[in-house]
Amino acid sequence: MYSHRTVGCVDTFSLIMPLSMLFLIFRPHSTSGCFQTGYVFKGQPKFDGGISSTCPTGPPKGAEWFHVKLTVSTASPAGEVKVYMKGTLVTSWNPRYPIKNRGGVLVANGYKNVVYYKNFHIQ
Questions:
Q1: CB-based contacts of 13: which residues, under 8 Å, 6+ apart?
Q2: CA-CA distance, 88 to 97, in Å (whole number)?
Q3: Cα dihedral 6→111→84→19 (10° resolution)
Q4: pLDDT (tens digit, 9 = 90+) per residue, 55-85?
Q5: For a tag on the chain, would you pick the N or C end, based on fewer CB atoms within 10 A?
């Protein structure tokens, strides 16, 4: 991913259901809240039960490419999502919704954000 210089968020989501999905937000330039997890329920973003914290390698910098990898495991009945940035584990959590083999990249509207991404694939 490549984040624009402006302050805002880059949203990466996985496990989509119609009008319901899990998401992960990266906040460039924010050291205390580098990322935040949440979900969408009936089209509305929700953050209860979410995780927000620092990133082990620091927040993504504006105007620089950074690598994000999400792994989703079904080894346990609850499932597990792990997030890596620059090859380092950032966080993990149990998904709220049943796991689906889908994903995408979003950018928050209204913050003058620009997001570029490449090599997006689901295995």
A1: 21, 22, 23, 24, 103, 104, 105, 106
A2: 25
A3: -170
A4: 998 888 877 888 888 888 888 878 888 999 8
A5: C
